[in-house]
Design brief:
With about 425 residues, the protein is an all-alpha fold. About 80% of the residues lie in helices and about 0% in strands. The protein is built from 18 helices and 2 strands. A two-stranded antiparallel sheet has the order 1-2. α4 runs antiparallel to α15, α8 packs across α15 and α12 runs antiparallel to α17. The protein starts with a strand and ends with a helix.
Length: about 425
């Protein structure tokens, strides 16, 4: 079978299927992310009934991402040592218990801002293990030439479940009460664990030497992952620039609800309307998830990533310059398309350029920086908004993101990727 090659990626004329095991992984991802969508929208809306402080609202975003900073490296070692399917099942089971506790608090009127932050923090801890297991297992489930397609499907399902379904559903559940919302999310987490446990068979450990599993030198394994990451010509600038952009984007969206919701806000949405505006982002993300593989073929990897990042960052100015609900929805749709195209290709880079037995550790180290620093962005967004206004937070996030993109564009060139691929295969 012949294949076309562009931008260092071989694309067969007739692509092989993604397989039944990947289907189980995708179904579990969809169920888990439906619960994510409910919680991600329910938590800030519930917080609005408890406080009006931008700083306290931003604590929810900080609590969401802080576990990556604390647990990311250790979780990477675990993912590389044990069965990646079982890690996901256990993490989703614990998540169901945590959310069930939130349902009890919501139903009994015991929910406070402190309890809400702690609940989101515990939820984030389960997400570290579940997400690392999910992304690290994909290369074991699909052919290498279909990684972009598989990652696109995963991101597409995540966006549909989170924003198309979960966010609007949360808007309805918040009317019924926080207890019902948390209970629905708990049931979805339990079902996601069951689907993965029943629908996927096999042992998904990738350590090259099983004897290493009996030698608990975790610190040495962490150092190995860090050494590979920071010595890699593609992964290092990708992770550093991506981390800076994540911090800026988190600062932006940590206080976006205050710009969008309420009679005194710039956009003027109600609490029930707020989830609907995010449907634009979700629609764009779904389209982008299917477009990514084609964009990679048509433009090449680097032009696709660079174009996507610049457009995604630029569209964040629209809510500031034109706070019209329809204009903001359209801009968020464009952000969804371009951001997803960039994320799919970047994730495929990691899965393609990192050896299988290091994927957990490199992924953990990458997310420790990329996601673990996001609490700083959330808190910075709240502090800047409190001192200088919401618009200052939004414009500052755009400026910082453009600077991070410029560094990435200078350091990663086509020849950089080709050399990294050659070294991996040698």
């Amino acid at each position: 079978m012949s294949a076309a090659v562009r931008g260092g990626v071989s694309t067969p004329d007739r692509a092989p299927g993604l397989g039944r095991s990947f289907g189980a992984q995708l179904a579990s991802t969809g169920l888990a992310n439906l619960g994510d969508g409910i919680l991600g929208t329910l938590a800030p809306l519930a917080a609005l009934s408890l406080t009006g402080s931008p700083t306290q609202i931003s604590l929810l975003s900080a609590a969401t991402w802080l576990p990556w900073l604390v647990l990311g490296l250790a979780a990477g070692v675990v993912i590389d040592r044990v069965d990646r399917r079982r890690v996901q099942v256990l993490a989703l089971g614990v998540r169901a218990v945590v959310l069930a506790g939130g349902a009890v608090l919501g139903a009994t009127g015991g929910l406070t801002m402190a309890w809400l932050v702690l609940l989101v923090l515990a939820y984030g801890a389960t997400e570290v293990f579940a997400d690392l297991g999910a992304t690290s297992i994909v290369p074991d489930l699909v052919p290498a030439e279909r990684l972009a397609a598989a990652n696109g499907r995963v991101i597409g399902v995540q966006q549909v479940a989170n924003n198309f379904l979960g966010a609007p559903l949360a808007g309805g559940l918040v009317v019924l009460g926080a207890g019902i919302g948390f209970g629905a999310a708990a049931a979805l987490a339990a079902l996601a664990a069951l689907v993965l446990a029943v629908g996927m068979r096999g042992d998904f450990r990738t350590a090259p030497d099983r004897a290493d599993l009996r030698r608990p030198n975790a610190l040495a394994e962490v150092r190995e992952g860090l050494r590979f990451l920071f010595g890699h010509p593609v992964m290092r600038p990708l992770v550093i620039s991506g981390s800076v952009m994540n911090v800026a984007f988190t600062a932006y969206f940590a206080v976006f609800v205050l710009w969008a919701v309420g009679p005194g806000s710039a956009i003027g949405l109600t609490e029930a309307q707020y989830p609907l505006i995010m449907l634009g982002f979700a629609a764009g993300a779904v389209f982008g998830s299917f477009l990514a593989e084609r964009a990679q073929r048509w433009l090449g990897e680097l032009p696709a990533v660079n174009s996507a990042l610049v457009l995604s960052i630029g569209m964040l100015l629209v809510p500031v310059l034109w706070p019209n609900p329809w204009a903001v929805t359209a801009a968020l749709a464009a952000v969804g398309v371009t951001n997803t195209v960039g994320n799919v290709i970047a994730q495929s880079w990691r899965q393609r350029l990192v050896p299988g037995h290091l994927l957990g550790r490199v992924g953990g180290a990458s997310r420790t920086l990329g996601l673990g620093l996001m609490p700083l962005g959330a808190l910075a967004g709240g502090v800047v908004a409190e001192a200088y206004g919401l618009a200052a937070t939004f414009v500052g996030a755009v400026v910082v993101s453009l600077a991070a993109w410029a560094v990435l564009a200078v350091q990663v060139r086509p020849q950089t990727i080709r050399r990294a691929e050659a070294e991996l295969s040698s």
